[in-house]
């Protein structure tokens, strides 16, 4: 039989990539599905609501997902990182687990008294068709606190889709369900796709000085009630995120809340953030207060950075730009007068090149595979004093005998974060341990 090649070939303009669904979301393949899933993304987004309980309707193995390993700063220890599961077994898969879920919700609420309960579907409970919405509704009628179903089974897609589904759940079931005791003209929400408790802790003191109230943090050390109040904010401040952009647009459409998308890392970023808030809120008085605060903070920061500039100027730092947190350190190292060598194991897109051009006045980058034998000669040739990267390149520093820094980007937000980054670089490079590491072994000295 002869096959018409023209008819069977794919038209690239009419077909979808193999790893995307019809909504443009990335779908895991059989080889990489174990890395993350939609369930993981939903948990990552909602677990930082610290006074709510999070119940997983599925096998006990799902409670060991990656969300438990993420940094979750919390001001409430009662439910912090406590995991709940219905522990579905074979009999539940055969006969259904909805009644078991309803019983688990009631027991959980009576024992721990959370402000709300988020109930997550998993691959198993979704495949057998358990009605978690019905179970949540029946449990609510008995106990009277909000029970929110989260439809995010792992097979739905990758982690990014789970983050989006969690945001849609908040808009549909939580935001707008309660009213704050009072409102002010300067109420804002801060929104991010990850737990931003660490980042917001550096920003809140600045906003409090200006009389700006953060009504809701979505999410990061958040309380359930503040999420309910989020519809009364005058402005949504989005930490740049393609995933949550749709979320803020939905809030704008449903609640008429404008939004801005501004990062909060680096001196220029935080200055632009404060000015953008004042512009959007439309208050000349606030704009004047912000200008005074910016001048005060920048002057104080410059004085404190002088010591670190003297100690770190002309030092060479290699930064792996594959990690988002490392990008934050490029600007900090550049402002300290350090020589920055960007390292990447992949070709840069135009957006990355533009960022490098903006910060370093060049877009050259060292391209290398992850094989150590290719990167170590580059380190030795440039006499690198510090490597900033994720843990996947940590073994490089053992062979090269240079300091290594794996940073947590949350800690370097705001003006205080810029100073913290400089302090971290200084203490890492000048740690006394490196003098010992570079010494010859006693038996080598004898020879």
TrEMBL record:
Q: Which Pfam family would be a valid example here?
A: Oxidored_nitro
**Could you tell me the superkingdom of the organism this chain comes from?**
Bacteria
Compositional bias of type Polar residues: which residue ranges?
A: 1-17
Question: Its Gene Ontology molecular function terms?
Answer: oxidoreductase activity
UniProt domain Nitrogenase/oxidoreductase component: residue ranges: 37-429
* Region (Disordered) location: 1-24
Against InterPro entries, the record matches this protein to: Nase/OxRdtase_comp1, NifE-like
Q: What is this protein called?
A: Nitrogenase molybdenum-iron cofactor biosynthesis protein NifE
Q: Which organism is it from?
A: Nostoc cycadae WK-1
Which taxonomic lineage does the organism of this UniProt entry have?
Bacteria, Bacillati, Cyanobacteriota, Cyanophyceae, Nostocales
